[in-house]
Amino acid sequence: MKYKLGAALITMTFAAPAFAEDAVCYNCPPQWADWGSMLEAIDENLNIQMPHDNKNSGQTLSQLLAERDNPIADVAYYGVTTGIKAGNEGVATPYFPAGFDEIPDGLKDPEGRWFAIHYGTVGFFVNVDALGGAEVPQCFADLKDPQYRGMVGYLDPSSAFVGYAGAVAVNLAFGGDLGNFDPAINYFDELAENSPIVPKQTSYARVVSGEIPILFDYDFNAYRGKYEEDGNFEFVLPCEGSVRVPYVMSLVNDGPNPELGKRVLDFILSDEGQAIWTNAYLQPARPVELPAEVAEKFLPASDYERAVAVDYALMEQAQAGFGERYLAEVD
Hints:
Distance between the termini: 51 Å
Oligomer: single chain
Number of helices: 12
Largest sheet: 10 strands, mixed
Keywords: Signal
GO cellular component, one term: outer membrane-bounded periplasmic space
Structural class: alpha/beta
Protein name: ABC transporter substrate-binding protein
GO biological process, one term: thiamine transport
Shape: globular
Organism: Thalassorhabdomicrobium marinisediminis
Helix content: 25-40%
Order of helices and strands: EEHEHEHEEEHHHEHEEHHEHHEH
CATH superfamily of the largest domain: Periplasmic binding protein-like II
Radius of gyration: 19 Å
């Protein structure tokens, strides 16, 4: 199937070498955003093998900084604010893959140090069968109800980007902004009384197993559970509203295999690469009309009107301060 992305259909041919080559991507976990299918496609199309890597965004940046003088990774994937940090810290180097010009302004570094590859919308990934008869929550405020004690999970917002994105969504929902995180701090402090589960890394499997019945997560993970797992799963876009957030990639500065890294990034932004994200229920970075069989599996467009974009540069600037406050003030 072909997809029209932007004004023109971009067709790229990827010639695989005779022998497999190895490259390293930090934070490419197979159970997150269907990176498993992307890694398989990179292997099949480019004959480049990349090992699975389950770091989160914060851990990825920490590793890149620690290895600055002797990098191990060739490419890296992170939430947009962490990608901005990586560029500012000099561990991401400029590269303009094919299709870069079609990524909307604001979702790429003009100097090419990072660029969006897809989008997600924050909400609740719910294992309905694990709720013990409780109703599916519809709002952030619902989660403070004692009936959900021990059922709610969110990734550590001081480390994992999706955790921070969830905190930004909560903060906006209750009247805060990127200069005032008091509403989010108050919310998580109150939610702490309901014994939430706060993992540091992606927890898709823990929702599927029922260990975490309700997880602050992206729509694409919830849709994957709903349509591909045995069980009863739902995605809820909170009644108060939420945020839409891009994930980005970059070429690692002085990485050991820069040409392999460039070929990987070219493929991810190609027609074929972007189509893989749509199969995983993600919105691609390059403008694309979703295949009808995918679009019909999403919540109605009217629901998505409650999800907003933010100033991602300001979001990045506020991240460290929020993380410090969270660690100091939320019990």
